[in-house]
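My current task is to audit a protein record that another person submitted. Please read both lines and tell me whether the tokens look consistent with the sequence. Do not assume that whoever made the record got everything right. I have pasted the whole thing underneath without changing anything:

===
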Amino acid sequence: GWLEAVTQQMGYHPQYLDSFLKTQHYLMHMDGPLPFDCRHYIAIMAAARHQCRYLVNLHVLQFLRAGGDPQWLRGLEFIPPKLRNLNEINKILAHRPWLITKEHIEKLLKISEWSWSLAELVHAVVLLAHCHALASFVFGCGCEQDEGLGGRGSLKPLSLGNQCFCEATAGNSYSQELLRINRKRSLDSCMELDSLRERMQQIHVETEGRDEMRLLQQDREEGEGQGAGYGGPTEHYCDPSAGLSPLADTDGVVTGATNLACYMQDPDFGYQDFARRDEDQTQVFRVQDYSWEDHGFSLVNRLYSDIGHLLDEKFRMVDGLQSSAMAKRQGCEPSVFKRGIWNYIHCMFGIRYDDYDYAEVNQLLERMLKVYIKTVTCYPEKTNSEMFDRFWKQFKHSEKVHVNLLILEARMQAELLYALQAITQYMI
């Protein structure tokens, strides 16, 4: 239930939800190259790039439950260099994935004692792309409306009469099994999580009551005494320029952050329109040369066992979702309409299909829909509930969620294509 707001929205499409839950569970909780606490910290780094407080708070809780060092939650200055070195590829993948090169890969794989293995890096790349894309879905469907712990969607809830959410997924074998497991886990851990939440809220209240000038003075003295601040005494740490304090306990150990900037470097780095040139097409990523089906799938599955099958199932599942009502309103076949949205998203990241007539995009997608898709895809933190309500007012909530699922998967595949191509070039 820790992704309740997300699963509630995805619940409009139970078959897709089943596939998503399998992938999410495998990435975060099953055997893999990366330690469990590192997985959640990488997720925090990824979500912070889009200022997605909902996902950051959830993964902070999961990070602590996995035995993560609370000191790491003070920011990137307090994590191992190996993890911190992931910051550059996180930044580029989140905003301009076409800038990823084999040199970025080589740098991570060849840094003496802080080097990554290929398997670890592939796991990390999939996690980054997964969380960047999930942040788009979170903002696109309104799950980021409440800044409290865990977040809470303020848009329309799942409407299924008197059915509870568990009953709504009846006949969905994996979801049912996961729900059974989660019920058992919740009996064992709900008190632990409730206690942790209460403690974090208490810490927040205590922190708010402190004298601001004293904290600022303390931060100045700490900065002068430590330089970069890595590995120093466990004093209260915050960024004075941000005007926000982390949640610190009485011993000064940070257990959660209200200031997401501590998980980022170069916060001004963001999306820029991909340069289109009529004469020089060297920057364009041609799917005919490197595709998920022919190249990416086999590489990722070889280096991180079975994840390729789960990702491929998810891509196919979103492609197979019924959208006849959406397509009918646009006067076209469902497959044509969905392909228009998918290719438009990939086009914004410089990915082109030689067999597609891009004039169809302007014919199929009205202006407000294109604005919405571009915002949710490229800078989701700028999305608000008004935008969600304004595009396609005549469409059902479930149809709007469907569009957000297409955005999630198209964006994730775009990031993976660039990253896996760079890894392939490095290997060659």
